[in-house]
Design a protein that fits this description.
The chain contains 11 helices and 10 strands. It has helices at about 5-10, 50-60, 85-90, 95-110, 120-125, 125-130, 140-155, 205-210, 215-225, 230-250, 255-270; strands at about 15-20, 25-30, 35-45, 70, 75-80, 120, 160-165, 175, 180, 190. It has a 5-stranded antiparallel beta sheet with strand order 1-2-3-5-4, with helices on both faces. Strand 4 (about 70) and strand 5 (about 75-80) form a beta hairpin.
Length: about 280
């Protein structure tokens, strides 16, 4: 990884200010002689897989996504998006407004374009769930995880090749002068319906809303109507994503209780209209 000073010199940046320092990257705001306000992101070894997301953003070329201005080694220069997040909108009471934005934005991201980059298969993203040891879960959660795993296996069996953001949630959607834009994709390829899965765990900071059965029901129905997707499949991926998120937390030594407590409500919403069970 290049140092910040090397990157600043390469792109002749000025007014460089730290924005964030995370396990995956160091992030700065700066000014560029060619692009004005920009973000400089230096990936750390733990964040190396973010390069798949960078490839996806380059392929999207600013259509519904922040623009990538340059990549050098594992250093990225990208568009600075100064506005509020869609999470801010929801936390202020605008959940219905946010759903409208989402239903407008996803088709821009999924619009057919030639020659997508090499991306991570969705099945690989679910490897930890598909191979987990059931003994890692509390007794009360094992049946929910088993159900979620069977759902994931069934949906992953269907062959799809849509390039996906892969971490599509409210706080990865920011307002710019030219509209709502995504940042920080994972760069996956698979079932387009998976794109909505993480919305059911978000936004952060609104747990009562996220766990509300009425909100889950409304979100699933509104997404199905707005995107023309099957409501059951939307909920199925929400369940599967909740389970893989719990796996990731366990593997990282973090508490999976939020996901484990949400799974029963998601499964109940799914079963309310399910013709068959896994």
């Amino acid at each position: 990884m290049k140092s910040a000073q090397q990157a600043i010199s390469i792109w002749q940046l000025t007014d460089v200010t730290p924005l964030a320092d995370t396990p995956t990257s160091a992030v700065y705001r700066a000014n560029s002689p060619d692009h004005g306000a920009v973000v400089l992101k230096l990936l750390k070894p733990y964040g190396a897989d973010e390069m798949l997301g960078v490839s996806l953003m380059q392929w999207l070329n600013g259509k519904g996504a922040a623009r990538i201005y340059g990549v050098n080694d594992q250093v990225i220069l990208m568009e600075y998006v100064p506005g509020e997040t869609l999470g801010d909108v929801v936390r202020a009471g605008g959940d219905t407004t946010a759903i409208g934005v989402i239903c407008d934005l996803i088709p821009h991201l999924h619009k057919h374009r030639p020659t997508p980059p090499s991306l991570r298969p969705l099945r690989a993203q679910f490897a930890d769930l598909l191979t987990h040891d059931p003994a890692i879960w509390p007794d009360a959660s094992r049946e929910d995880i088993r159900y979620a795993t069977q759902l994931a296996e069934r949906m992953l069996a269907d062959d799809h090749a849509t390039p996906l953001h892969g971490d599509f949630h409210h706080d990865n959607i920011l307002l710019a002068d030219r509209g709502w834009l995504v940042i920080d994709p994972k760069g996956l390829i698979g079932d387009p319906v998976y794109e909505t899965a993480n919305l059911f765990q978000n936004p952060v900071g609104a747990p009562d809303l996220v766990k509300n059965p009425a909100r889950i029901d409304h979100l699933a129905t509104a997404l199905a109507n707005g995107l023309g997707w099957d409501r059951q499949r939307i909920l199925g991926w929400a369940i599967a994503h909740g389970a893989i998120s719990a796996c990731w937390n366990v593997n990282a030594g973090n508490d999976p209780s939020f996901q484990l407590s949400l799974l029963p409500t998601l499964i109940s919403a799914y079963l309310a209209n399910a013709d068959t069970q896994p």
